Amino acid sequence: MSIVFSQNSPIYLQLVEIMKLKIVIGVWPVGEKVNSVRDLALLFEVNPNTMQRALAELERQGFLYAERTAGRYVTKDQQLIEDTRHGMAEAYIVDFCENMKELGYSKDQIIDLIIKEAK
Fold first, then answer.
1. Domains in the chain, number
2. Among 15, 52, 69, 108, fewest CB within 10 Å belongs to which?
3. Which residues, including other chains, have CB under 8 Å from residue 20's CB and lie 6 or more apart?
4. pLDDT tens by residue, 86-107
């Protein structure tokens, strides 16, 4: 899995966002065991220490939990997942609207385009 990382933020934080997206959209289902640090580091083509830092941050945020000697698992907290999904959607909409306004579209024109494309 070849990912082009941005120079604007630390790689581990970018990994956190990628993995949160995988949880939110169900690629990593609720309660599923997560691969080992080494396997994920190979998959994402990053240093294992970077991956460990990303996983620790996901645990801190509540998206993963560890079971002693059994590994890490995706949270079972459906509310956290849904709240995160909603927050991501809002952020996409804000970015989209800002970009459209830069292109010279009015609020009504943006709404019309969305309605047209959503059909």
1. 2
2. 69
3. 58, 61, 63, 84, 88
4. 999 999 999 999 999 999 999 9
